[in-house]
Design goal:
single chain, 68 residues
Length: 68
Amino acid sequence: MFEFFVVYRTYYCAYDEQKLKLFPSTLKDAALCWFIGLLRGSITMWAQMQEAFNSKYKDYCRSKETKE
């Protein structure tokens, strides 16, 4: 998600459609495979994408102290 926000700030995508189109280009490896596996049309708003991504990868993003 950090990499997305770096790119997002560079191009300043204000609309959900723009963010949703830009997001996959910032993914790699397992995250990209996860994205490709989403049902087409299942996510139509940026807030949905953020929620789905954060839900899937929340354990990877937590600090060491939080994990313990």
